[in-house]
Amino acid sequence: MSVLQEISSNVKNMKQLEYSDLARRMTQIKEDLRQGVEKPFKEVIDVSWGDPHRGGMKPLTFVRQVLAACVYPQLMNDNKLPVDVRQRAQKLLDGCAGRSVGSYSATQGIPEIVQRVSEFISRRDGGVPSNPENIFLCCGSQWALSRILNVLVNAEAAFTTGVLAPAPCYRTTTLSIEGLGGVVIPYYLSEEQGWELQVEELQQALESAGGACNPIALYVINPGNPTGHVQSRKSMQEVIRFASEKRLFLLADEVYQGCIYGEKEFVSYKRVLAEMGPPLSDTVELASFHSASKGFMGECGLRGGYVELVNLDPAVKKYIYTLFTADSSAPLLGQIALDLMTNPPLPGDPSYFQFDQETQHIKSTVDKNVKKAFEVVNSLQGFSCPAVEGGAFAFPRIHLPAKAIQKAKEVGMQPDTFYCLKLLEEAGVLVSPGSDFGQKEGTFHFRFCILILHDVLEELLRRLTLFHTQFMKDFS
């Protein structure tokens, strides 16, 4: 008997990302370049991931020095490392079993780090209390989200579990829902209003689901991925009221909270919920997620994240604890990265000046990138892109010519995937097609990372401009 017969139908029904074919083609192109095959470009620019280091951003010195000293403690005997680096590494190792980053930790994480993450959350939220017992450290925010979904989605129920999720939406989340046997109920963000989340759309999405499933949770991404929007406090209050009225568990993906541009301001769902007061602040169930992978720290490969639970029934939290226990503990280097993200050097510390310089440089670079990308993309024929308010991505809409759409159908591709493939093959730029994220019927987009070196962005935009001008001529 083939094992294929035993694979869950939920897993079989998970659709492969359009991006997968593009990634395979990129690998082939890179090999061609390595073999000396002539192409119009010397190297591929991969901006399909929210990975700052992939885009040329340098790791923060303080972070890497502490990590290095934790991995190789003999470095703490070297006076070349700043004293606060050595003190922090010593403190972190003291919290590790056997004083080694090669050890396991408690299921929820190293207790001292969990405590400091809790204090960070309280500072961020203007003094709103944070209980360390409600925080779980994990190997990335998406890992934690999938575990919470595992508790919420009941594949054995008479009615399929439904989860409201934005469209466009980060695809890993929707794949997790589908793989667990749940159904995604898409609610469309308003592109015309800068990708605003409108409660009327939430209501319409619930009504469209009819009695086909049992809606149990509402997933929001703020700042948006891939859309780059930042929710207002008023919008968040409306969402919280809606979740309360419809008895929905609120899942708040807030991993890009440190990446805000212009005059916008990040406010966490937990803070807004607390400030709304009883009965909402005492009853709405919330899980909020953050990560060391995202933002200006950009330590994607270390896999460090956390989830904080609010207003959960202790019996439910017990099952969540059991699920987390099944994976022993989060990687210790990821936990250390979280500690450094939530507790960076302070003014007066030996490492503060360099840390501040490096982070300000990254912020000013991304601010320039946001403005440049908006200016260039919107100057191209057939493109429109709302201003990026936060997050790591721009998500422009492209109005493709009818001939291009027809050609895509002939080769069995989504039109925006066809465009992205041509962009990769002819200009050496890899972006992610909008069809992977969900979009309104008849609209086409692609996503690219802006947390990259400004020189890389300028080269990307130069190639895009030349390619797009020719593409429009070819298919006009």
Explain this structure to me?
This protein is α/β, with parallel strands linked by helices. Helices cover 44% and strands 13% of the residues. The chain is built from 17 helices and 14 strands. It has helices at 9-12, 18-34, 61-71, 83-94, 111-124, 141-152, 171-179, 199-209, 233-245, 269-276, 280-283, 314-325, 332-342, 352-379, 402-410, 415-427, 454-474; strands at residues 45-46, 135-138, 160-167, 183-188, 213-221, 249-253, 286-291, 305-310, 383-384, 393-394, 397-398, 429-430, 432-433, 446-449. Strands 2-8-7-6-5-3-4 form a 7-stranded mixed beta sheet, with helices on both faces. Strands 10-14-13 form a 3-stranded antiparallel beta sheet. Helix 9 (233-245) links the parallel strand 5 (213-221) and strand 6. Helix 2 (18-34) runs parallel beside helix 16 (415-427) and helix 14 runs parallel beside helix 17 (454-474).
